[in-house]
Each structure stands twice: as C-alpha cells, then as structure tokens.
Backbone:
C-alpha cells in the first residue's frame, strides 16, 4: 500500500519560515493536499492540488510537489500556526494520509 | 456554506456495529464533483481514512477496513452513513465526516469537515 512519510516534529521561531516535508513514491505525479489541525478541532484544508490555497487561508501558506516530495511552507510563521499538519494524496482509489508533523513555534 | 454534522451513539459494545450518520446542510450531496467521506482519529494519533461514497452509490474503502465497512448515501435526506462491524477497543476514535472534492483522475481533497464525534468501544 502507498505510504506518505512526514517528520514527527518541526520547530520554527516566530517570523521565520517553516518547511514541512511529505515523502512518497513518485508523489510528484499525484496531487498533494495539506491540513492543519489544532487540539480539539477538526482538520482544516490549507493547501490542495499541490499549491492552491482555499479561500480564507493566509498567503503565508504555500506548497510545492516534485519528484518524491511535497513541501508545505509557512512564511513569516506566527504563533497561531502552531498545530499538527497532515499531508494527503490519492493513490489507486484510496486516500492516504501522512503520519502528521507537529509544528512548534518557539 | 456547506456544513456537516455527525450523529450517532457515543458508546458501542465490543463485537457490535458502529453506526454514524452525517447530515449535510447548505448544499446537495447529489453532485458529480464530490464524494462524501469518513475519516477517524484515535485519541492522540493521526488521521485514518475509512472510506468515501459518491451519490451514484460508488464506494471507495480503506483496504485495511474494507471487510467491516459499509458507507451509503441517501440523497433524499442529504445524509450519508457509516457502518463499521465487529468493533473492538481499537476502533475507539473521533469520527469525522467530510466532503471530498474530485479533481481529474488524481485530485481528491477534503474541503469541508464536520466537528467530529467521539465513539468509544467498551462493554
């Protein structure tokens, strides 16, 4: 079965750029999506189709996807961005989620 | 604005069947552009997709759960449902329903989510 691998944790200082990676075999051939989840809340879609932002998502969130790696980038990271982030892809008619990355804003 | 709301028992006994319903408001589930999905999250763990249904009746299931899962769409009630049989404590989780956008052959993302329903499996 297809797997997506994320680092368990990433730390960033306020105002700096955070990058969260998601790795999977030929992931660049598929669309990657990213979700933000804060404690006690449902996930929120922040990036879809590799690099598109839903309405209401701040411009500091961006995405890329090439080769075997998709990357979520948060520029000018704010304290409110501290959350768990999940990548997701569609492979052979199944949804696959990455294991999640805890972003800490120190 | 599309809204989704999960409903169903919060406590299920081992070996029984977990049943949840998702009610969709602010839109119809009878669209070719969307599937309707269930995702769960055990306490302190990550997201696990359970399955999705298209209003036409086409279903997609997580292979690891396929033998125990049934997802149906009821277009007349703008609802879709989840049944998970032979549950054990490992099925204890927050269960989310969500709308899944269909983009070409390889794009499937969840753009609207319910608030989630905690289901505990215990005798």
Residues:
């Amino acid at each position: 079965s297809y797997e997506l691998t994320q680092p368990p944790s990433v730390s960033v200082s306020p105002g700096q750029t955070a990058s969260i990676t998601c790795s999977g075999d030929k992931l660049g051939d598929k669309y990657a999506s990213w979700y933000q989840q804060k404690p006690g809340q449902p996930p929120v879609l922040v990036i879809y189709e590799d690099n598109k932002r839903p309405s209401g998502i701040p411009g500091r969130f961006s995405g890329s996807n090439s080769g075997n790696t998709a990357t979520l980038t948060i520029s000018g990271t704010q304290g409110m961005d501290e959350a768990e982030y999940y990548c997701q892809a569609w492979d052979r008619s199944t949804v696959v989620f990455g294991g999640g990355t805890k972003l800490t804003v120190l | 604005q599309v809204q989704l709301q999960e409903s169903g028992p919060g406590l299920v006994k081992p070996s029984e069947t977990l049943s949840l319903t998702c009610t969709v408001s602010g839109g119809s589930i009878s669209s070719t552009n969307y599937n309707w999905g269930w995702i769960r999250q055990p306490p302190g763990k990550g997201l696990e997709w359970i399955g999705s249904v298209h209003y036409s009746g086409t279903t997609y299931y997580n292979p690891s759960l396929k033998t125990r899962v049934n997802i149906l769409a009821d277009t007349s009630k703008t609802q879709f449902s989840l049944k998970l049989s032979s549950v054990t404590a490992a099925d204890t989780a927050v269960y989310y329903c969500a709308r899944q956008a269909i983009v070409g052959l390889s794009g499937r993302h969840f753009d609207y989510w319910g608030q989630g329903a905690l289901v505990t499996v215990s005798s």
In short: DSSP finds no helices and nine strands in chain A. The mean pLDDT of chain A is 97. The two ends of chain A are 36 Å apart (CA to CA). Residues 62 and 83 of chain A are 16 Å apart (CA to CA).
